[in-house]
Amino acid sequence: MIARAGKPVVRLEPVQARRLEIGFVEVTLPDGFFEPMTDEELAEWE
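The structure assignment produced for this chain is given below.
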């Protein structure tokens, strides 16, 4: 309990955490996805 001037203003209670499922979308990455960019590709980002 949190009080201001002797009067309760907030009551703290535990909350139930929800389970979130990540990765529900199936994704396929092209070959070479993790390869370094070429100089031309890097220049396009500048």
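Interim note for the steering committee: The CA atoms of residues 31 and 37 lie 13 Å apart. The mean pLDDT is 87.
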